[in-house]
Amino acid sequence: MSSTYSIIPNFTYPIKQRAIFFTENGGPEVLKYDYIDTPKIDDLKPNELIVKIKYIGVNLIETYFRKGIYKTSFPYVLGREASGQVVIKGEEVLDIDLNDYLVFFKNESFSQYVKLSVNQDKYINVGNACSDDSLKQYTASLLQGLTVLTFVNEAYNVKEGDYILNYAAAGGVGLIFNQVLKLKGAKVIATASTEEKLQLAKKNGADYTVLVNDPDFVSKVKSFTPDNRGCDAVYDSLGKDTFDKSLEIVKRKGTLISYGNATGTVEPLLINRLSAKNIKIARPQLFGYITEKEEFDHYSKELIKLIDEKKLCINIFKTYDLKEYPEATKLMEDRKTTGKLLLKAPE
Q1: Low-confidence stretches of the chain (pLDDT beneath 50)
Q2: Keyword Oxidoreductase on this protein (predicted)?
Q3: DSSP H or E run through 203
Q4: What span, in angstroms and rounded, lies between the C-alpha atoms of 163 and 27?
Q5: Contact, 262 vs 60, CB < 8 A?
Q6: In whole angstroms, what is the distance from residue 267 CA to residue 243 CA?
Q7: Which of 61, 109, 198, 283 is in the most buried spot, having the most CB atoms within 10 Å?
């Protein structure tokens, strides 16, 4: 039997909801937009609540699950980050009110409703007066903004005057990297696939730009650094196709942060290759840095503060309806988008 819970007056909670999911691995064609069950109210625990989703962040990691790079069970509902309004809450949920908006991490958020636990899930309460524009900015920055803030402080502690190479510099995470690196006083070398994207990167803080497919890519990147010594750190989100170039570009005693698989997974590394220049290498993921509540609270407060103070602007490419996700991911995978893609859940 469920605990006592409260619900928004006159709110009708449905038993079915729309969601994006897949039942086999493959391309965008395996994606389904159909009905699944909503979280059951009768199973709601005293420390749990149900959120009616409004906006959902689109991330490249979803394609890794769909393609089978990361293994899943079927059916698999996509989603990692979202925002929405609290419509039902258990009796022990004291610091969140009905109608409050939360920005949160939660699997299966390519849907209309999710259940959160105040003890286990990570969320930011932005109150019931949050503007729609602010809610979009917070949602569009949660995963990628926290990734950047943790990576520039913990994966490699960026210092003033460092020369940093930033791959995919016009993408959702790349544009945030440009801005945060500049705030830390670094010299930002941006790379992307088109001149148009490079110009966008420059508008967001990049000092130098170079096309990723330039035949002289390595030498051009090095030419931006003092005495052609190479970069203090490289943030490489592309993976397989750029890993060897990144090793060449990192200077002696530099650091290579490999954190994405956009061009495929990196081949196994013979560790002796790091010895020639005493290179450090890391393969971080965000949640290893925000495991504890105080860690998440620290970085999430910093992120919200940067956005509210207009020191960080999140470039939103487009907000799609949830059912349009297959179209959105095709464009993203073909590198035809810049900035962040959002989905809007159906009412």
Answers
A1: 1-2
A2: yes
A3: helix 195-203
A4: 37
A5: yes
A6: 9
A7: 109
Q: Where are the domains of the chain?
A: 5-130+315-344, 144-287
Cβ-Cβ contacts under 8 Å for 145 (sequence gap 6 or more): 176, 303, 306, 307, 312, 314
- Record the tokens describing residue 147, joined without a space: 């990734």
User: For the whole model, what pTM was predicted?
Assistant: 0.90
Residues 6+ apart with CB under 8 A from 73: none
Among 118, 95, 88, smallest CA distance to 9 is for 88
CATH number of 5-130+315-344: 3.90.180.10
Helix (H) or strand (E) holding 285: none
Cis preceding linkage at 75, omega within 30? yes
54 close to 138: Cβ distance less than 8 angstroms = no
DSSP code for 42 = G
CB 127 within 8 A of CB 133: no
C-beta of residue 244 within 8 angstroms of C-beta of residue 269:
no
Predicted pLDDT of residue 1: 38
Can 5-130+315-344 and 144-287 be said to share one CATH topology? Answer: no
pLDDT of 25: 97
Which residues does residue 225 pair with via DSSP β-bridges, in sequence order? none
Q: What is the pLDDT of residues 120-132, one digit of tens each?
A: 999 999 999 999 9
| CB contact set of 270 (below 8 Å; sequence gap of 6+) | none
Asked if residue 233 lies in contact with residue 258, where contact means CB atoms within 8 angstroms, the answer is no
pLDDT tens sequence across 19-68: 999 999 999 999 999 999 999 999 999 999 999 999 999 998 899 999 99
